[in-house]
Request: fold
Amino acid sequence: MNRLNNSKYYVISNFFYRRLLILYPAAFRERFGTELIQTYEDLVTQDKSDRTFLSLLELWYWLLTDLFTSVVFERYQEWRNNMKSRWLIAKGFGFCFLALWFLFWGLSFGRNMFHLPIKDPTYWLLGDQFSNLALNSLNFSILFGPLIVLAIFLIPSLQINHVSVGNDILQIRVLRMSKLSLLIITICGVITVLFWSVILLSRLGLL
Reply:
């Protein structure tokens, strides 16, 4: 086996590890960058006289697992902190969208099943003349709207913790939420499951 000592493998390893640290958020790098590099150098030079290229690869397997787990956690935390002030706006938009979604389907059922003398909601929303892009956007909203609203109300209540006990893992917890948020998440979840179940069964020719 090739001994590392001050070989090119050590230099290349050091170079790539420093470059990988750019995956962390800037604020995290400024605070812990030096400490991460020092920890890495302590690990890679431990018993350096006996370290082989294979043992360096094994060390890198552990380093990459730990690094990318930490990066996902830190990036999520940064994004979540930046979005805190915007989630209220997003939730307000989601609530209004869900109300319009129910209004659209209520008018559609009223017109087609009960023959109410009302205009087709599609033309009511898009006008008498509309482009394919407008129609595709409406269809996308009808299909994926409830799922998007579900995500808007659920994501702020998710907490991701980086747990280092034995193996590094990401632990996802659902925090307590208001009754309104829980109700909207439940409604959107049921709608999404029913909607896509009907679509899937139709595609399979079972409906």
User: Anything to note?
Assistant: The first strand starts at residue 158 and ends at 165. The chain has one domain: 8-203. The mean pLDDT is 82. Residues 5 and 27 are 34 Å apart (CA to CA).
